Amino acid sequence: MLRTPLYDWHVANGGRMVEFGGWEMPVQYTSIMDEHHATRRAIGIFDVSHMGRFYFSGPNIDGFLDGLTTRRVAGIEPGRIRYSLMTNESGCILDDVLVYHLQNADGSSQYMMVVNAGNREKIFNWLKPRAAAAGIQLDDRTPQTVMIAVQGPKACGLVAGMSNVNPADLKNYGGAIGTVGGITAIISRTGYTGEDGCELIVAAESGAALANAILAAAKPLGGGPAGLGARDTLRLEAAMPLYGHELSETINAAQTDLGFAINLKDREFVGRSAIVAAKKNSELPVRVGLMLEGKRPAREHCDILVGGSKVGVVTSGTFSPTLERSIAMAYISPAHAAVGTKVDIDIRGKTTTAEVVGLPFYTRP
Question: Which CATH homologous superfamily contains domain 7-50+143-237?
Answer without folding.
Answer: Probable tRNA modification gtpase trme; domain 1 (3.30.1360.120)
